[in-house]
Amino acid sequence: MFKGYYRKYIFHRIDELKRYIEFSNKLLCEKLEKEKIDNALEIAQIEDEFYKEKFLELAYESENELKFDYSSMHWSSIFITQYSYIEHILDEICEFYAAKTGAKLKLKDLNGAGIERAKNYISKFMGLPEPFGKAEWGRIKDYAKIRNKIIHAGLYLDQDLDIDKQVIKIISKINSVSLERFYHHEPDDPYDESNNNFNSILYDPKLELNADFLNVVVTDYDKFFDHLFDELEKLVDKNGKGN
Question: What is the pTM assigned to this prediction?
Answer without folding.
Answer: 0.83
